[in-house]
Structure formats: structure tokens, C-alpha cells
Amino acid sequence: MTENNGQHFSWARVIVVLLHFNSLPIMSVVPYKDKNEGKKQQVAEMFNNISPKYDFLNHLLSLGIDIQWRKKAVKLLKKDQPKLILDIATGTGDFAIEALALKPEKIIGVDISEGMLAEGKKKMKKKKLEHIIDLQLGDSEKLLFEDNKFDAVIVSFGVRNFENLEKGLSDMYRVLKPGGKTVIVEFSKPRAFPMKQLYNFYFTYILPQIGKVVSKDTSAYTYLPESVQVFPDGKDFLSVLEKVGFKQTVCKPLTFGISSIYVGVK
């Protein structure tokens, strides 16, 4: 077979080019396309910007369903009765507060956003929970805790924001006690008609506009659907959990696949 210019056509050359293209690293989705900082720094800045309105927007944009998702996730730890819980990417502490239903002795929440933690600490003070929920500034991918410390590690809509997903999950695995469990709630992508189409329309056109009006940060709510699209959800995420060491992994889809609960055991 020859090309139009008479040169010999090589399928081998095409295959090599395709393999090279497929091996190129996928660009990380970041909130602010015009800035040079890494994803971690940009995510911290984004959450600092939207922190005063975060709780209001979070419940508004999910129509309050996110509260039920967290309740379902917490119930998966009921039989484990964890006494010391780590809440990663704790934000303003909603998941930590929900986890009080497990009657733990202590919950430590970690987040990279000072703004979110400030809002969370106000909440804990108002609810008089400071003695049991301790919110700390920290990097979820470089946890400042010893190995085998926590009975359970929980994350609510946070792993999608990791700069290095495997590194973050590996550190979660490290700080868990043997036999300890992680429970992760994260957005996923509906596959079935018509939810897939409705979901994509809402995330692409409606959510950014509401976010822009309320939070004044357009990038934050265009970043959200973009980050969901590139996130390895479902079986792909279970594969990553298993790669870093987790066993007995399970994915439980929520509300037509809009979100999922992931479980793994060390």
C-alpha cells in the first residue's frame, strides 16, 4: 500500500505513533487555567475563595441529597465501631459531624484549605463539638500521622481533588490500622439514559451559573464537572484502591449513579 505521494505506507509507524500518544500523561484538570501553580495549590485557593458560601451552595446544588449520601456511607462503618477516625479533605466538617453517629472517641479532620477549616471551626464551636472533632491544616497526600493509627479513614468528595491520586490513597492506607476500613463518597458519571444527559446538562450549564452568582468564583464550578469527567470512577477507581493495597473493595452507586460510595479494607 502506498501514500498519495508515492511513499510506502507503514502501519507499524502508525501503531508506534498511537502508542506514543496513548502513553502521554493526561493533563491534570485545574480550577484556574491561567495560573502556573500546581493542582494542589489551586484547589486550596479555590476552596479558600468559596469557603464562606460553600455549605449553602453544596446543599443547594445537590438539592440536599449529599446529606443522605453521607448518612449511607457512615452506616457502612457501624459494625466496625471505629474509635479513632480520620476525615480527609474534611472541608467544613460535615462528614466528620455525620460520623459522630458511630460514637467514636475522636475524629481528626484534615484539609489544605485554611478558609474551609476556619468555617468548620466556627461550626464545631457553635455545636460544641471541639472536644471530639479536631480540624487540622494538612496535606492529604503527606499525612503527618504514624503508620497504623486510625480505625477508619473517611473522605467525602475529596479524592477527586488529589494532585496524585495513588499517592493520596497510599497514604490513607498507610495510616489505617490492619483490618481498618476506608469509606469514600465521590461523584461519578451516570451511564443510563436519560440521567446521563440530564446530569451532563446540569453540570455543564446550570451548576456553573448558580456557582458564579452565589460564590463569585466561576472557575470553582466549571472545575467541578471537569474534574468529575476525568476521575476514574466505578471499577476503575476500585482498581486504583486495590493497586495501593486495599482488599474487599466495593462500589455502591447512589442516586442513578450520580455519586458512589467506595469501600476498602487494609
From TrEMBL:
The keyword S-adenosyl-L-methionine applies. The keyword Methyltransferase applies. InterPro entries: SAM-dependent_MTases_sf (IPR029063), UbiE/COQ5_MeTrFase (IPR004033), UbiE/COQ5_MeTrFase_CS (IPR023576). The chain crosses the membrane at residues 12-32. One of its GO terms (molecular function) is demethylmenaquinone methyltransferase activity. PROSITE patterns: SAM_MT_UBIE (PS51608), UBIE_1 (PS01183), UBIE_2 (PS01184). Its EC number is 2.1.1.163. S-adenosyl-L-methionine binds at residues 92, 111, 139-140, 156. It is an enzyme of class 2 (transferase). GO terms for biological process: menaquinone biosynthetic process; methylation. It comes from the Bacteria. Keywords: Membrane, Menaquinone biosynthesis, Methyltransferase, S-adenosyl-L-methionine, Transferase, Transmembrane, Transmembrane helix, Ubiquinone. Pathway: Quinol/quinone metabolism; menaquinone biosynthesis; menaquinol from 1,4-dihydroxy-2-naphthoate: step 2/2. It catalyses: a 2-demethylmenaquinol + S-adenosyl-L-methionine = a menaquinol + S-adenosyl-L-homocysteine + H(+). It holds the Pfam family Ubie_methyltran. Belongs to the class I-like SAM-binding methyltransferase superfamily. MenG/UbiE family. Methyltransferase required for the conversion of demethylmenaquinol (DMKH2) to menaquinol (MKH2). HAMAP family: MenG_UbiE_methyltr. This is Demethylmenaquinone methyltransferase. It comes from Nitritalea halalkaliphila LW7. The gene is menG.
